[in-house]
Amino acid sequence: MNSKSIRWCIALMSVAFSSIAHAHPGHGGGMMAGIAHPLFGLDHLLAMVAVGIWAYQLGGRAKWLVPASFVALMAVAGGVGMAGIGLPMVEAGIAASVLVLGLLIAFAIRVTPAFGAGIVALFAIFHGHAHGAEMPLLGSAWQYGIGFIVSTAALHGLGMALGKGCAKQALWLRAAGAMVAATGAWMIAGA
């Protein structure tokens, strides 16, 4: 194992064991609040990085289709949340996304790009709704929305880079997926 691969794997592990609080702290309004929201919730952070890792594992068209479908559905659901339209079991859906995405990585589950896009799109609905519903009262919906879209896309990119960095150490990647899944199980138990 070379030093570059070790650094990538350590970075992946640090994301999996991040001590960021599960709660979403209050942030100001506008774009910075949108950028911060996915970064300061362990549930969002793990799921969005996991989407990128799994997309890289799937390879081919999935590398762009899986993250793009997540971002697109998340943006739509964010608008629904901003409009105050309720969605049942949002936190449970988010926690389930962390569990399932971790398992998909841990077991290196292979599906077609379209099916993979559908799986993450379902989870994106819960993440997007949470982002939209938690928009600061005085924030600009457009700025906030652009912020969480940019932040999510960056986290997907980080996941893809981590997947690429650990590709030759499949055991490390699978272990990280198992840790993400365990975190999701813990979130479900606490939900």
Tally of discrete structural domains: 1
DSSP strand content: under 5%
Structural class: mainly alpha
How many strands appear in the DSSP assignment? 0
Could you tell me the mean pLDDT? 89
So how many helices? Answer: 8
Question: What is the molecular shape?
Answer: globular
Structure summarized in a few sentences:
The chain is mostly helical. It has helices at residues 3-16, 30-39, 42-58, 62-82, 90-106, 113-133, 141-165, 170-190. It is built from 8 helices and no strands.
3D structure, described in words:
The chain is mostly helical and 191 residues long. The protein has one domain (3-14, 29-190). The protein has 8 helices and no strands. It has helices at 3-16, 30-39, 42-58, 62-82, 90-106, 113-133, 141-165, 170-190. The protein is globular, with a radius of gyration of 16 Å. The model is unreliable at 15-27 (pLDDT under 50).
Topology summary:
Layout: H1 3-16, H2 30-39, H3 42-58, H4 62-82, H5 90-106, H6 113-133, H7 141-165, H8 170-190
Helix pairs in contact: 1-7, 1-8, 2-7, 3-4, 3-5, 3-6, 3-7, 3-8, 4-6, 4-7, 5-6, 5-8
Features:
191 residues; globular
